[in-house]
Amino acid sequence: MVLTPGPNMIYLISRSISQGRAAGLISLIGVGLGFVIYMLMAVFGITALLLAVPFAYDALRLAGAAYLLWLAWGALKPGGRSPFQVRDLPKDSPRKLFLMGLLTNLLNPKVALLYLALLPQFIDPAQGSVLVQSVLLGSMQIAISLSVNALIALAAGTLAGFLGTRPTWLRLQRWLMGTVLAGLAVRMVSEAHR
Asked: I need a labelling partner for 168 at 20 to 30 A (CA). Which of 50, 80, 99, 114 fits?
């Protein structure tokens, strides 16, 4: 899921290409803080909701499946534009890079919905504290996301050049992403209530 292109990845790639690797990494710190904020909001919200309203789990699961299907359609529909097509951007200060990374993440509904849609799928109330499980899973997702996005920011110029000149690879990436998202949605719908 981390490799699914979205506003954060596009922002990091565009900053790395137009202003250098350091700019991409500074932007990533802002994105990371946004992940932590979303994770904490989702963790406390999910915990309270699942404990207070038993059928909320099913509502979250079905809403998450619908969102993943919508993302899958966006990846698979004809005429989709590659997220790796970046444009020239003006140079920004480290402070602005950090704040733009944070705002890009906080204004990205995909991040909030993914935490709310996917995190509950891996929480088992029978295995202990829902809060602790949520924080651990959210922290693992953040660590993986930051690691992968750091590598992408560092390799952005090479990656964008490679993908931009290979339409077959772009189509393959879109189909792979769409198939994974649709598969996750089907799994979420078919999963029995915990």
From this structure: 114
Q: Is the pLDDT of residue 157 over 60?
A: yes
Show the domain range for 27: 7-190
- Any residues with CB less than 8 A from the CB of 21 and at least 6 apart, and which? 153, 154, 156
Q: Is residue 170 part of a domain?
A: yes
> What ranges in 53-166 are assigned the alpha helix state H?
56-76, 94-106, 109-118, 130-154, 156-164
17-55 residue pLDDT tens: 778 888 889 999 999 999 999 888 887 776 566 556 667
Taking CB atoms within 8 Å and a gap of at least 24, the contacts of 77-81 are: 80/174
What six digits make up the tokens of 88?
A: 């020239």
**141-152 burial: b if 16+ Cβ within 10 Å, else e:** bbeebbeebbeb
CA 136 to chain centroid, in Å, comes to: 17
Contact predicate 188/65, CB 8 Å: yes
User: What is the number of structural domains in the chain?
Assistant: 1
Q: What is the pTM of this model?
A: 0.63
Is 2 contained in some domain? Answer: no
- Asked, for residue 88, whether it belongs to a domain, the answer is yes
